[in-house]
Amino acid sequence: MGIQIKDIETGNATIMIGEQGQPITDVQKDQAFNSLEKSGALLLRGFDVDLGSFSEFVGKMCSKVTLDPARTFFESNVQKVDAGTAPVGLHTENSNTPFPPDLVFFYCRKAASNGSQTTLCDGQVVWRFLSDDTRSLFRDHQLRISRNISEPHWKEYVAFETEGLNSADEVTMEHFEAFRHRVPNQKIELQDDMSIFYSLDAPGARKSLVSKQWAFANSIMGPSYNYEKPLITFDNDQAISDEILEEIRVVTEAVTKEVQWQDGDVVMIDNTRVMHGRREITDTNRELFIGLGYL
Ligand SMILES: [Fe+2]
């Protein structure tokens, strides 16, 4: 059985179409990455897929998975994507945290009857349209992301990122110190109320790990559901000016495309290059799952 690769742009994605009944796990890693290198995102349509085979597919494409979509759904449901129904601004996944994933996967088990499209914005295209001055700023400076995180939230995060720990209750100050030392580009201050204030330096633009080309990829315009909204400046503490924010808004809006989900669609995204977001959810029956991993 063959896999058809259509050179049609939907969103910024190349469409890879499976023959009827063909398992999604038939897709080979080099096939997927050839398309990902070209387009930054890949839409896999018409394959036979369920939560189990989606999970297997994510595992096949990544050297390390940061969360198993099947497990998290069945055990805690935390990674079913649907944080509210409001539109979500463009962002790269978890890029305001120390270990953002390189790859993001979505599986649409049930498509919405209307609205609720996922948005895709190719940071490589954005990069070409930005002014020379803005490109220089983002090439010369990283972003500085600062915010306060409550004790339960940081303990949960440290537990998740520390091998051998299963829950926030097990996190000790030694784990906290070990975590702190793992991230040299981050400053963390423990507060009297046991919350932390952290400031993390992370790129706002970078060379994609897949295409090796410069891309504007960050979460300046993104949401913050689980944590306090961060303050984002350049790494010399200079504010990102209103003019630059407006330029970014205009350019990203002009190149943003939508994924019109169909049941069983899977999308694979280069998270070091392509930003994603969401239009307003107008049909809450939609079911979307996320998988995250590293190259
Ligand atoms: Fe996201």
From TrEMBL:
Gene3D superfamilies: Clavaminate synthase-like. Its cofactor is Fe(2+). Keywords: Antibiotic biosynthesis, Oxidoreductase. GO terms for biological process: antibiotic biosynthetic process. It comes from the Bacteria. Pfam families: TauD (PF02668). The keyword Lipid biosynthesis does not apply. This is TauD/TfdA-like domain-containing protein. The lineage of its organism: Bacteria, Pseudomonadati, Pseudomonadota, Gammaproteobacteria, sulfur-oxidizing symbionts.
